[in-house]
Amino acid sequence: MSFSFGFAGADIDAGPGDAAHETQQRQQQQQQQQQQQVPARRADGQAGAFPVPRRRQLAAERHGLRAMLSGLPSRIAYDTLDVTLDDGQVVALPRRELWDVRVQLMAEDDGGRDGDGDGDGLRDGLGDRDVKTGVYEGGFKSWESSVDLVKVLATHSHPASWACKSARIIEVSARARARARTSKQGTCMHSSLTNLPCTKLGCGTALPSLAMFRWIMALEPLPDRRQVSFILADYNPSVLQLVTLPNLILTWALYHRQRIPVLQDAFSLPGELELTPIVLETFETYLSTHGIQLSFLSGGWSPDFVQLLYQEPGPCNDDSSASEASPVTMLLGAETIYSPFALQAFAEMVLSVLHREKSMFSAHASAWIAAKRLYFGVGGSLDDFVDRIEARGVTVSTVREETDGVRRGVVRCVLPQPT
């Protein structure tokens, strides 16, 4: 089943008029090439993001940063999304251009790298579909609830407010992700500033994680900082490879382009970043020397996924952090509950993470969930999620409501404190 939500403004990807220099012409050329070269395929029998009859769910899997860096192209094209925060400040978040993703996919097809045919399912996300159930779940698009979540984080949990207290950020932004080559849809769950894990479940373009990453970089040098660990996850490893990791690199490179000479050369062409070996090496070195850890997980939301998450190396999973102050754990999610299947799986994931954080690390854990009040014709809603999770003993408070256009909200979920 495939469909478009038809929400005005639901997809905030830049239109043709917003692209820099020759982006519009290049995108049109690539779309024409794609129509000529890519045949349509049925998705029957393929693995899906959520439990769907006759579709198997993909297993959880870990992906190392070094291996993912080795799979990047020599250059990537990008644009930026300017998010105006509630205090009037603007944060510019870079996103890899979708036409550039198409080019890479077609090049890999021509080179025989997409032998299992899953790339055709991934291309559903590069057209006009919002969702294709069990095949593509919206991971290439930037959704407005992700922007709502960025604004909430800036106001309620900016990294500057963490001081030196350990923290974990578990983020789940944007719908479940696209299905591609060695398809796995995942959930991103882990990050830490002064032992802060940032987990993004179904991260896709990863706008909230990009904002947190940028704000963390702006805090340096931070006294007594231990480690910042981002664990980004998506159902499909190709989404992590094609958009999530490139967007993180772009965020780092744009922030430091005036400070690091090699980056000035890498930005020699407008709207493009050259990913030379020295640029990637400098990126790795920066992460290491500043105590920032990036990890990537793919696969469906399941008990096995949660288990893999807590096997992931990180400050709060390290015995050395046992003597530190209780960490602050944040699970961030946006546009993850648009279907009943997604809502049920995601609610169980949230509950599992909150309980594990509390029992394993005595963490002050919270989940920040952004979504539309109702997904017409699809079956999911923010109110349904709140009802389900409150019935399991979680305390929920509304921290943001949007009434202009499609009604949306952001809620904060916490386990009750013992009396």
Automatic annotation (TrEMBL):
<keyword id="KW-0963">Cytoplasm</keyword>
<keyword id="KW-0949">S-adenosyl-L-methionine</keyword>
<dbReference type="InterPro" id="IPR029063">
    <property type="entry name" value="SAM-dependent_MTases_sf"/>
</dbReference>
<feature type="region of interest" description="Disordered">
    <location>
        <begin position="1"/>
        <end position="53"/>
    </location>
</feature>
<dbReference type="GO" id="GO:0032259">
    <property type="term" value="P:methylation"/>
</dbReference>
<keyword id="KW-0808">Transferase</keyword>
<feature type="compositionally biased region" description="Low complexity">
    <location>
        <begin position="25"/>
        <end position="37"/>
    </location>
</feature>
<keyword id="KW-0539">Nucleus</keyword>
<feature type="region of interest" description="Disordered">
    <location>
        <begin position="108"/>
        <end position="128"/>
    </location>
</feature>
<protein>
    <recommendedName>
        <fullName>protein-histidine N-methyltransferase</fullName>
        <ecNumber>2.1.1.85</ecNumber>
    </recommendedName>
</protein>
<dbReference type="GO" id="GO:0005634">
    <property type="term" value="C:nucleus"/>
</dbReference>
<dbReference type="GO" id="GO:0005737">
    <property type="term" value="C:cytoplasm"/>
</dbReference>
<dbReference type="InterPro" id="IPR019410">
    <property type="entry name" value="Methyltransf_16"/>
</dbReference>
<dbReference type="GO" id="GO:0018064">
    <property type="term" value="F:protein-L-histidine N-tele-methyltransferase activity"/>
</dbReference>
<feature type="compositionally biased region" description="Low complexity">
    <location>
        <begin position="1"/>
        <end position="18"/>
    </location>
</feature>
<keyword id="KW-0489">Methyltransferase</keyword>
<feature type="compositionally biased region" description="Basic and acidic residues">
    <location>
        <begin position="110"/>
        <end position="128"/>
    </location>
</feature>
<comment type="similarity">
    <text>Belongs to the methyltransferase superfamily. METTL18 family.</text>
</comment>
